[in-house]
Amino acid sequence: MSLPATSLPLHRGGRVRPDDRASSVEVRQIVLLFVAALLLNHLVGTWLLQDAPVIGDALQYLERARQLFRGEDDGLPHYWPPGAPLVLAGLFTLLGRADMAIAQVFMSVLSALTTVLVFLLAHECRGRRSVAWGAALLHGLSPTTLWMARQTETHTFCALWIAAASLFAVRFLRRGAWTDLLLAAVYAAALVLTRPGSAPLLLLLAALPLVRTRRWPLVLPQTAAVLLVALVFLLPVLQFNHARGAGWVLSTNNERNFFIGNNPHTPAYKTGHLAWRPLEALPADTQAYLRRHYEAADPRQAMMQSSLAYLREAPWAFVQRCASRFRNYWAFDYEQGRRLQIHLAALGPVSWVPAVLQALGSAALVWLFVLGLPALVRQGQGRWVGGVLLVCLLYQLPHVVAFSSPVYRAGLGPLICVLAAAGWQALRAERTSGLARPSHRSRLTVAVLSTVLLLAIHVEAAWHLVALR
Predict the structure, then answer these.
(1) I want to staple 282 with a disulfide (CB 3.0 to 4.6 A). Which of 6, 242, 286, 456 is the partner?
(2) Is the dihedral angle over the CA atoms 104, 110, 113, 115 positive or is it negative?
């Protein structure tokens, strides 16, 4: 049994290259990929990482899921976005237990499923198994994926929702089936519940019917259906928080995030520094400033008003920080590896291996991602590439205005891997085929400039990492 391919690599003029006939995806390949990814996640988690427990923010989400499972109601609104805790609480309810081991196995399964979705998404977009396998390997073997596979991190959920929503969105664009559009809407709504800042992507999906056709009698019902699905998922949470005095919001940590990244004590580059350090470890004047807002009668209002007042006083500082946050987002990621280093500290210098591997792996993946973009555009894939980049930028947008870290890029991992694999295949095709292409000197110039630009971003991140360690 096989699934038909629906996309073919094209010449600039739109003709299918004879050596690029579409290949089918066999169900046994999908099963094999899932089992292999699941086994790899298990082996890395239990052997290499020595059964590391749930750590960092992931532990907060796990504890919230346990509260929901036990039916505990403290009368407070959702502080953390409720998407991940709700899914975990549903799992615990189904099994009747809320063990950490159960959560870790479940997260490992979700991570393996995401790798399968990356494979299917790449095949749907490019129609070649070589590209699909390349994208799946880039995702499944990424240190970021492996280090997070057994953690209840929202990034794993976001990567799954983005991969699934993108797959069905692409299928809708090709076939126009209502089922594909509605499934894409379900996964996009789940993404917003998990990370509310991704709401612009839901609006982008609602506009997708207009991209496919200008037949308004068809566009309007499809757009309305997307918004209705979103309302079904989001309205209960909005009502829950509103009833507890928080307003019509999905979570109440947004004001603090904006405040942390936009106040007189926020570093110019590492804008999340005040959130990642214990209050007691900060300078005395910074501590006093933060405590005054945290202990106000209405902390959320106090923080937001203070941040907006500061932006009016120092708009140029906000612009500079936004530029810094954009650059930092695409720098090397080491955060999960650093957390694991603390768990593995008894191993001495060897404990730093996860952090180093993650930093190198994430930097290499971004390099492949950027390097292949010009080749894809030259092969007539500019519209597709532009769509993926628009999704990436909209997903990044909240981190540009609040505070940023390369770890937040993990949710975009599936799209980055698909473009990286497709771009690499396009570069190889330019060397081996008769396609019209620029000179070797021109391609080399683009590659060198891209490498220098990314290297500058990584060096800047490393310098600030040492300065504010």
Answers:
(1) 286
(2) negative
* Among the listed residues 427, 389, 384, 383, the one whose alpha carbon sits nearest the alpha carbon of residue 134: 427
* pLDDT tens track for 35-61: 999 999 999 998 888 888 888 889 999
Q: What is the CA radius of gyration of the chain?
A: 23
Residue 10 has pLDDT above 80, yes or no: no
Q: Residue 348, exposed/middle/buried by CB under 10 A (0-12, 13-18, 19+)?
A: exposed
- DSSP notation for 137-198: HHHHT-HHHHHHTTS--HHHHHHHHHHHHHHHHHHHHHH--HHHHHHHHHHHHHHHHH-GGG
| 49 vs 105: which has the higher pLDDT | 105
Q: Which helix (H) or strand (E) element contains residue 25?
A: strand 25-26
Alpha-carbon separation of residue 414 from 167, 192, 356 (angstroms)? 10, 17, 22
Kindly list the distances between the CA atom of residue 257 and the CA atoms of 237, 288, 321, 404, 427, in Å, as whole numbers in the listed order. Answer: 20, 18, 14, 10, 40
371-425 confidence digits (pLDDT tens): 989 888 888 888 889 999 999 999 999 999 998 899 999 999 999 999 999 999 8
Q: Which residue has the tokens 């690499």?
A: 424
User: What are the tokens at 55?
Assistant: 């750590």
